[in-house]
Amino acid sequence: ILGAAGAKIYYRLTHLKESGGRALAGLSVQGFVIVATVTFVLGGALQDLPIGHLLDATVPALLVGQAVGRLGCLFGGCCAGLPTRSRWGVWSSDRRVGTRRIPVQLMESAAAATLALLTAIIAWQVPTSAAGALFIAGVAAYIALRQILFPLRGVPRSTRHGRHITLAAALTLLAAALAALLLG
């Protein structure tokens, strides 16, 4: 319930110019991830659990959630790719026009699923004293890949430099987290 509320609130805050729609229309998986992470942190703190290790254990599942969420985008017609004539294009709709498009939702879903697998293997196989570094690395890698794929979307961005700043910040966090994992 908290995740659904977070998904709705995040969507509304990032789409202020859109008019309200149906109750379930306009959910954002990023809002769910933010609320889920805060819930894990608060719940873990209340039960005296090591927060970093708790987050490291949850990152594969959060990335699976992102992978599934992007499939929802494909079926819901949001986050659609640019129209293309390429044979690799997939017929989809942006809720206005159905045409062959760059399958950016599928690309992002595959990236999230791959990161989920990698973080699960690392969490299972590599003991680390750098608690929380795997969580940061997984989320930062996903954010970086998402920023790289944004230009393939048919939706214009609302800021001029936001994507570049976010990409630089994600790559910096990723490098720091990987260093902590390798050295920790």
Question: What can you tell me about this protein's structure?
Answer:
The protein has helices at residues 2-14, 29-46, 51-76, 104-125, 133-149, 162-183, and strands at residues 90-93, 98-101. It has 184 residues and is mainly α. Strands 1-2 form a two-stranded antiparallel ribbon. Strand 1 (90-93) and strand 2 (98-101) form a beta hairpin. It starts with a helix and ends with a helix.
Question: Descriptors for this entry?
Answer:
single chain; two-stranded antiparallel sheet; 4% strand; 6 helices; 184 residues
N-to-C series of helices and strands: HHHEEHHH
Mean pLDDT: 88
Structural class: mainly alpha
Sum up the overall morphology in one term: globular
* Secondary structure tally: strands: 2
As residue ranges, the low-confidence spans are: none
Task: Give a brief description.
With 184 residues, the protein is mainly alpha-helical.
Describe the secondary-structure layout.
Elements (H helix, E strand, L loop, with lengths): L1 H13 L14 H18 L4 H26 L13 E4 L4 E4 L2 H22 L7 H17 L12 H22 L1
Antiparallel strand pairs: 1-2
Helix pairs in contact: 1-2, 2-3, 3-4, 3-5, 4-5, 5-6
